[in-house]
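Form 12-C: Joint structure prediction
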Amino acid sequence: MNFKSILFSVNVLASIICTAQTNQIKVIEDFKPSSVNQQGKLYPQVNSERRVRASILAPQANKVQLDLGGIKYDMVKDEKGIWTGVSEPQDEGFHYYQLNIDGASVPDPGTVYFYGAGRLGSAIEIPAADQEFFAIRDVPHGLVSENIYFSKLTNSFRRCFVYTPANYNEDSKTRFPVLYLQHGSFEDETGWAVQGKANLILDNLIASKKSVPMIIVMDNGYAYKPQSNDSRQESVFEEVVIQEIIPMIDTKFRTIANRENRAIAGLSMGANQTMRIMMNNLDIFSHYGGFSGTSNYPSADAIDVNSFLDGKFKDGETINKKIKLFWLGLGTKEPSPFPGSVRAFRKMLEKQSIKYVYYESPETAHEWLTWRRCLNQFASKIFK
Amino acid sequence: MNFKSILFSVNVLASIICTAQTNQIKVIEDFKPSSVNQQGKLYPQVNSERRVRASILAPQANKVQLDLGGIKYDMVKDEKGIWTGVSEPQDEGFHYYQLNIDGASVPDPGTVYFYGAGRLGSAIEIPAADQEFFAIRDVPHGLVSENIYFSKLTNSFRRCFVYTPANYNEDSKTRFPVLYLQHGSFEDETGWAVQGKANLILDNLIASKKSVPMIIVMDNGYAYKPQSNDSRQESVFEEVVIQEIIPMIDTKFRTIANRENRAIAGLSMGANQTMRIMMNNLDIFSHYGGFSGTSNYPSADAIDVNSFLDGKFKDGETINKKIKLFWLGLGTKEPSPFPGSVRAFRKMLEKQSIKYVYYESPETAHEWLTWRRCLNQFASKIFK
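Section 2 - Result
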């Protein structure tokens, strides 16, 4: 038995095993290419049951899997060496995934790539019933601008993306309120303007007059002091926001530079960070949005209002006067510890008689459709 | 012999074969992570000989190759299932590549991804001796803005990226000249601002007063008429530039909207396209840059000036009066047919006594370091 015939035997054997495993799935054959595929790429595809079908040419591989939502689905090889596999039905919205080829976890060559889950990799878009709110439509479009700057506090080059609404360039005088909008853990400053579709959501809201035109600043929530050899990593994100980003934005862009016209919001880790920044700087911000997160994360214990965030929530009356909108959102399918910690936080707000708005995204988990919907709700309520 | 032991035998056998093939290479062990790796990723790496070392975990794979510069280098597996391979020395600059795992051609999970060669995939940056001109430096940085628009001519949403220089936002009155800058075949509107580093090149040129501050518009050179079922694909890129892009840019941005303050340039296919657009619209543009391409491509035959581009080069005297700069650039290592067709084109220019500037990029082929250098040269000469 020579090398090639061993290989051939292994492949045939593998095909038989995988076919046996996956032939049991009955799927509806109405698959269509995912909307986030590279141009001209037919796979991956999604069907009306919200199943994902992936496909890749790998003639010499022993085992290929679709790794999606924490499950590795075996794929099956055809006579041309093309492996194909189908997932269980997925939630509506945007999900990261990868292919696994003989133990190598790699991006699917069929998709565009997104930064999330700590890597630049593949994702699938499962069409949502309400997707028109983030669709590209024939309305006036704002710009998303990459802004590079040197940060003295971190001794590094950083960048943010800045959304300016369509009418920003119509005249040279109008000034705009600003929303500072943050990503979650293992994500970066690209998240909101790429998979978050913040620009398209705002274009649509502004065109239908549901939102006032505003600037949105999306920076990177990871910011650390320059390290000496033996020092621990110390976050200076709040200092970067207050001392570097806001003054830069107020200089470079036509903002209305006062607290009434500044909002801050974030998702998950970003909700946690921005709540802390908000409460430490009520002279700078007047609107807060927490999407799938609060600063008591991950605890579901009752909050001691005297010690939590240095007692910043103790005086409910003053908070109600100063904060024009305190907004929280959560997906109904979010896993622990998110529902528990958000619930504990809401109880504290209620005990303190602090006014807030609470929104639930139906049938979504700790993922981007939840956060697109949160932004859509939140952005329609601020600066009014 | 069960399934697992067959697999094991195949892997061991494959390792022995590959080791035998690659152990002969003597390499200098001063490899460093490539500058276009994803944050925190150690591989791929480049050494002082300009060799590339790639590495990937693929414990069950039979064969893994590094596919770079038209050569597939066998990689070797260690006891942990990590495959590693080293290439021959590469040219300085930016090269696309991929990994091949048991016949599957996939992006390397270690790198950032770039659109080129018709796909979004991996690339390696081999440090260039002159790389300071496109490095990120502590100088004022301009913005790169994504601009989405609906094109009636193609009946589709399109986008361009627009560079505005650092001083664009300093006041609301100053107006700027505009360079329209095009990518090559199998590339798109992202090329110039990502791997082309057009923004950093201009930031550096403007900071050192080698260039005048200018706006750069980078759009997609693929633009087709909406197709009826049986019609051939018909490019309308020139019409999109003249009827849609230029009026949009002159409305949205503070341009100096006259021919003296408009340049057009492109690389390869983009050089070919923009030369045609330039010569058809001398009332609109006054500066031309052709990087690694001309409109007689791919022919190296002597050009018949009466028929070439409808005789647009017949009247050398008028051309010398109207065109303020006619600029051509080429890498010294470019493959056929580029040197031949550019040579034939230059002979025609000389025969017509048409003034032009010719630049050669040392030791680079039909790749991005050639084009970064071309832009660096060209941008320092226009609008003066």
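Section 3 - Comments
The first strand of chain A starts at residue 32 and ends at 33. Chain A touches chain B through 53 residues (CB under 8 Å).
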